[in-house]
Amino acid sequence: MQKEPEDRLSAQEAIYDPWICQQGVPEIDLFAQEDCFENMQSFYAEYKMQEAVITYIVQQLIGSNETEDQKKIFTQLDDDNDGQLTRDELLKGYREFYGDLAE
After folding, report:
1. What is the C-alpha to C-alpha distance for residues 32 and 21, in angstroms, rounded to an integer?
2. Structure confidence by residue, pLDDT tens digits, 21-70
3. d(CA 38, CA 63)
4. Integer CA distances (angstroms), 14 to 4, 10, 11, 50, in order
5. Is the model's pTM score more than 0.70?
6. Theoretical Cys-Cys bridge with 102: which of 24, 44, 56, 95, CB 3.0 to 4.6 Å?
7. Which distant-in-sequence residues (6+ apart) come within 8 Å of 62 by Cβ?
8. CA atoms within 13 A on the CB side of 38
9. For the chain, what are the domain ranges?
10. Mean of the pLDDT values across residues 3-8?
């Protein structure tokens, strides 16, 4: 290992270093690679299905009145009407609701 860049091996020199040459190039098992890719696709599909089921369950559990109440609260907290709550907006709402307990 050389601290100074100019003292280090170039990429071309490093490729032909005896240690690198002794290691050889690993063989890639194309069947294992294909299986891995298929597993990743399957996992993603299962994840998306699980996400959809959870969303459906939550929507069924929350009544429409509760949803409307949550929308009203969100709208009241969203000072700049950008559809996102910032940390400051949340803290302001918390302080308005809890008063001195927010500190």
Report:
1. 25
2. 888 767 778 888 888 888 898 888 888 999 999 888 887 777 767 878 88
3. 39
4. 16, 6, 5, 48
5. no
6. 95
7. 70
8. 6
9. 28-61, 63-103
10. 87
